[in-house]
Design goal:
The N and C termini lie far apart (51 Å). By secondary structure, the protein is an alpha+beta fold. The model has no long low-confidence stretch (mean pLDDT 87). The strands form two sheets. A four-stranded antiparallel beta sheet has the order 2-1-6-5, covered by helices on one side. A two-stranded antiparallel sheet has the order 3-4. It has three helices and six strands.
Length: 123
């Protein structure tokens, strides 16, 4: 069973590297954007205290807006904010707030959830 989990994790890691390469850079995808800030708070069943996190994207950053799940056993999971951010840029919105649940699978159901607040700065 452990080899199966490790194989899936290795495949997921290779897929993540390829997605990063395919995503391009923020300045190529969104030339009018000067910065993106994602403020989020993770919550997870079994963990009593929520975990705040801030992720910054600059013009030279990879345009991969996928945040990993906190669950150690999670495979192919995380939070994909790509649609949120592309929609914001398309409509030139500066702020979006919402929540997402982990999209992954794994040996347990203790996947994370996030509440997010995205801010985008434009030229």
């Amino acid at each position: 069973m452990n080899n199966s989990i490790n194989s899936r994790k290795n495949a997921a890691r290779k897929d993540r590297i390829q997605r990063k390469l395919d995503a391009g850079l923020v300045d190529a995808m969104f030339p009018e954007v000067t910065g993106i800030v994602i403020n989020m708070t993770y919550t997870q069943r079994g963990i009593q205290k929520s975990l705040p996190r801030i992720v910054n994207f600059f013009p030279g950053s990879d345009a991969l807006f996928r945040i990993d799940c906190l669950c150690k056993e999670c495979v192919d999971g995380g939070f994909d904010l790509t649609q949120v951010i592309t929609g914001m840029v398309r409509n030139r919105r500066e702020r979006a707030v919402g929540d997402l649940s982990c999209e992954g699978s794994g040996a347990s159901d203790d996947h994370s959830k996030i509440d997010y607040n995205v801010s985008i700065q434009y030229n």
